[in-house]
Specification:
- The protein is of the alpha+beta class.
- The protein has a single domain, classed as Creatine Kinase, Chain A, domain 2 (2-Layer Sandwich), CATH 3.30.590.
- It contains 20 helices and 14 strands.
- Strand 7 and strand 8 form a beta hairpin.
- Helix 7 crosses helix 12 and helix 12 packs across helix 16.
- The chain is globular.
- The chain starts with about 20 loop residues before the first helix and ends with a helix.
Amino acid sequence: MNATAQRSGDLRNPAGRGAGYNPGSCSHRHGITSVYHSVEQHIARLDADGAAILLQGSAIGLEKESLRVSPDGHIAGTPHPRSLGSALTHPYITTDYSEALLELITPPLADGLRALDFLRDIHIFVYENLGDEILWATSMPCVLDGGDEIPIARYGSSNAGLMKTVYRRGLGHRYGRVMQVIAGVHFNFSAATELWPALQAAVGRSGPLRGFVDDRYLGQTRNLQRYGWLIPYLFGASPAVCKSFLGGRPTTLQEFDRFTYYEPFATSLRMGDIGYTNSKEKGVGIKANYDSLDAYIASLTRAIETPSPLWERIGVEVDGRWEQLNSNILQIENEYYSTVRPKQLLEGLEKPVLALRRRGVRYVELRSLDVNAFHPLGVGEEQIRFLELFMLFCLLQDSPPINIQEQREIDQNLGGVAHRGRDPALQLLRQGRELPLRQWALELCSAMEGVVEVLDRNRRGQPYRQALEVQRQRVEDPDRTPSARMLQEMRERGEGFFHFARRLSLEHAGHFRGLELDRQRRRMFEREAEDSLHRQQQLEAEEQPPFDRFLADYFAQR
């Protein structure tokens, strides 16, 4: 989230008292176990104070990555289009790892549909400035000719720009460039500011509000890990990959056709063993500590400041060129791959851990969403509604610390669902016991009913209930999931992964090129592009200290 969320007025609604939530009836009706009783209690107490309606005031932001590719489906070798502005300073249109990997960012908005509308408008503007190039429609990349052919993103000659490029150069050395061009969608969530004092009273907690907010967001983060396997099951859309992605390396994946690997029950290979992860690298695996904000900050700080013999072999400044920012376990915080991150807005070149220490958690970023190949935006309305519901459920649900055994279960569950999520024989682990995915998923869907009732209050059409029902149907019938649909369509059309993805990419490109951008919105994007280029020019015109001193000052921040 790169802007302050704006909300209109006080969302307390005395009329909400008359539509009170009865936790006992919901629990009896849906057979919810006592595990989720805290959600019911907190909603009931909020309702008693007329404050449950504040749950409708969450701010939602989206970040969507997409590879720029040529019409024939190969990664673009062209620079980031100047007409889109500066990738270094533009608030909405930037690049991720590669010069060809666009990242499109919405500000935090008071409704998920407004975030989708903003994302749609960014896509239209981008397509107006892409020439004949298109955006790749899937998380897993197009045909690749090895990592050396993947252009690392460039951000100009300033120290700030060079730091971003060197960081990416280091990622390429550490994990390989191919892994870095896997795309995803990030869902950013922050609860209404007005909710926090009401929720603090509802849970019976005293003390400073900021400490309560931080603790609740960290609890939400832990719950998003506990139940996070549900996201790749419901929304995973990467059960197959082009063989070129593996570059001839041995694999246990099965052959779909002569150009494609897959796994029959996979949901999200992006979230599996072939995706980008720190923990699989021998000797440098880390796990952040989410017990508290202080513990989280300390665990990341330790990784950033601890040398790694493996990365020391790469070198830092080699023959006058910076190959990585440092040779520590993590160069910077962003290198730590996690499905979810507690975050704070940065002020200038502030370190993320320092921003968290100074101002606490501002929002939580869910990072486990594959790009939805069946939707031009890569994410759709029912997904957005369900994700908001899921985030609130995880916020309201009490969340004990994660011990070593549970962390192992979390990792095993996520990996199992990524590779075998639609397998009827798949068993998940919970507190040392096995249970079927379907059983646990239906249990979670039932446990979210109370949140649904509040979110749909005073809204037409019950959009959150509809979104929940779509997901419940996917749990009951795995063939309804995007990953199953993808493999079925590939079989029916006789397409491998590449041809499937290219066909949808061209369809989505035609969709956006057929839309007209509102004149004021176009002018806003044009102005942002111009202003961002000017900001980069100003930055580069300033006197720059030597890069090594710049980095030393950056890492010395306390």
